[in-house]
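User: quick one - fold this with heme C bound?
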Amino acid sequence: MKRRNAIKLVAGTIAAGAAGVTILTQAFKPEKGPAISPKKVEANTAETEWNYTILDPATTAAHAYENFNIGSCMYGVFSSIIAQLGEKIGAPYTSFPVHMMKYGHGGIGGTGTICGSLNGATAIFGLLIDDKKIRDILTSEILCWYEMNPFPTFKPVEPTFDFTPNTSISESVLCHASAAKWVKKTGYRIDSKERVERCRRLTADVTAHTVEMLNSYFDNTFVTHYQNNETVNECMACHGGHGKLGNSTGKMNCTSCHDKTVGHSLFGDVHYQMMDKK
Ligand code: HEC
Ligand code: HEC
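Assistant: Sure. Structure tokens for the protein plus heme C:
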């Protein structure tokens, strides 16, 4: 056989083989978890000790930007919303010990876990929303929104540090990954004033979004948008509580930590089909 034909034959065999595997894995595709379409969330507006009143997102965000300088990201989000509610409602907000939220800086005491701005936002949900189901919906909504969108976008009237950061998409709710993505994209050091300004403005972005969410929730017009990550649904179909593997929990973006391995892509489906439910 001429060399060129031999190459063609080999190439053809590889292509046919690959197509065969692809068809096979397609045939064995397990059913994906149901897509979560935008959903209206009915507000539970029973009076509590911690009532809400409509706030201005921009004013509260500007406040958070300033408060970042007192106690960092988590404190910035939480204290600004409490201060605005204190101005409009008074007690019990006026005596809330907001200083406690300083622990959340740098992903909890600098450990790089959950982004403090998200910890602050979801602590507010914890304070205002007693219904677990609703609280969890709002919580995963803001976490998914954070993973998928470019930040920071907030423009301060009087900047603490006069620098307009480029945006980056974190694809993760972790302080570590979020800050690293930005540093990698922009080339600034993690301990630079520029990176701190990025987090200062991100704190304002998260505050504005938290207030917008609360405004629409308590106005009974809140609709979910973000908590439907296709990849997460796909992974969880096999690995989640309803999947045969049942070895994984969560809604975080899976591929920010796990690569889709080639072996996994090619044989995961077939392997899955063959295995018994654990
Ligand atoms: C079709 C079902 C299926 C889907 C979809 C799927 N997996 Fe898997 N996964 C498997 C099987 C089967 C194994 C091997 C389990 C074993 O041997 O116990 C596995 C193993 C793993 C492991 C363990 C380490 C390894 O590679 O063996 C990780 C981590 C993993 N999957 C992550 C993911 C992520 C992330 C996604 C989504 C991008 C995903 N999986 C989607 C079936 C699936
Ligand atoms: C922040 C990083 C991170 C994210 C995000 C993440 N994982 Fe993991 N995952 C880990 C670590 C760390 C382990 C433990 C690895 C080990 O011990 O080998 C793990 C283990 C696993 C395993 C193996 C469990 C077993 O019993 O072998 C599976 C399956 C898995 N993850 C699936 C997922 C899925 C699905 C998602 C998305 C919903 C996800 N992971 C998101 C870090 C992450």
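One thing worth noting: Confidence is low (pLDDT under 50) at residues 9-28.
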